């Protein structure tokens, strides 16, 4: 759906269902250089199981207008502004990679607005090498190729797939190419500058789920384990053989873990 926020056209995937702010709201936050297509195999799954799904493109990403936001703190504030503009009182936040940083920051700053947090292939800090920062500024196509290469696990590089008929590598490259030319650079610099993750994580009182990838080369699993230990009320699951792009590579496993977490009594 299309939505206006701060006089900017924002695109939000709702999983093919009309959004109802009175429902059980799940907001899915994409990672660096990504967009709502990160969640194509999650948004519809949960929308058709009774959840009110919002998978927004951050400004300058995907089909959203405007300029990319330049800090994790600004992204967290933007999420709450989006909730306010849609009359959402409280939501469960799901973050992937950079989206984990945004989720942690938003949940710490606005605890009454965030019911639960799910953190996929994340960590409390995501430092970025100077080489990748430079590529994102001067050689965008090369930066995208590097991230797609590092972001996928062995299965994707062998051209195998849990979803027949799809190419993880090709899909990832196409997804990232849809964004504003400045989006990846802004995201990477925002991740590199963010230092509040450990303190924010320590302060969280919400139930948390960490879904980690065994073969993650972008946010190695040891840092995900540290994140899970730092959170006060965290569950952790590690998906064997998976790379950083978990929502696309292992959607069935991700969806099962999220559904159990969202509906703990069932």
What is the fold's blueprint, element by element?
Elements: E1 2-5, E2 8-13, E3 24-29, H1 40-47, E4 51-56, H2 72-85, E5 91-96, H3 98-109, E6 114-120, H4 130-138, H5 140-151, H6 154-157, H7 168-177, H8 183-193, H9 197-203, E7 208-213, H10 221-230, E8 234-239, H11 246-249, H12 251-262
Parallel strand pairs: 3-4, 3-5, 5-6, 6-7, 7-8
Antiparallel strand pairs: 1-2, 2-4
Helix pairs in contact: 1-12, 2-3, 3-9, 4-5, 4-8, 5-7
What does this structure look like?
- This protein is an alpha/beta fold.
- 42% of the residues lie in helices and 18% in strands.
- It has helices at 40-47, 72-85, 98-109, 130-138, 140-151, 154-157, 168-177, 183-193, 197-203, 221-230, 246-249, 251-262, and strands at 2-5, 8-13, 24-29, 51-56, 91-96, 114-120, 208-213, 234-239.
- It has an 8-stranded mixed sheet, with helices on both faces.
- The mean pLDDT is 90.
């Amino acid at each position: 759906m299309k939505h206006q926020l701060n006089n900017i056209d924002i695109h939000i995937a709702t999983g093919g269902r009309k959004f109802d702010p009175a429902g059980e709201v799940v907001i899915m936050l994409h990672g660096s250089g990504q967009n709502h297509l990160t969640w194509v195999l999650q948004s519809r799954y949960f929308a058709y199981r009774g959840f009110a799904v919002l998978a927004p493109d951050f400004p300058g990403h995907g089909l959203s207008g405007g300029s990319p936001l330049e800090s994790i703190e600004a992204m967290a504030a933007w999420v709450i502004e989006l909730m306010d503009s849609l009359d959402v009182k409280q939501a469960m936040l799901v973050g992937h990679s950079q989206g984990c940083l945004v989720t942690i920051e938003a949940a710490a700053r606005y605890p009454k607005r965030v019911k639960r947090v799910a953190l996929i292939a994340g960590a409390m800090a995501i430092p970025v090498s100077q080489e990748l920062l430079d590529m994102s500024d001067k050689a965008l196509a090369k930066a995208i190729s590097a991230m797609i290469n590092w972001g996928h696990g062995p299965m994707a590089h062998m051209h195998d797939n849990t979803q027949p008929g799809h190419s993880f590598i090709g899909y990832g490259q196409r997804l990232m190419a849809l964004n504003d030319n400045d989006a990846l650079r802004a995201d990477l610099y925002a991740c590199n500058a963010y230092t509040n993750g450990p303190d924010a994580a320590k302060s969280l009182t919400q139930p948390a789920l960490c879904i980690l990838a065994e073969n993650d080369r972008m946010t190695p699993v040891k840092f995900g384990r540290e994140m899970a230990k730092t959170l006060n009320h965290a569950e952790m699951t590690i998906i064997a053989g998976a790379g950083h792009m978990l929502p696309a590579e292992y959607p069935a496993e991700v969806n099962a873990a999220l559904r159990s977490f969202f509906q703990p009594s069932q």
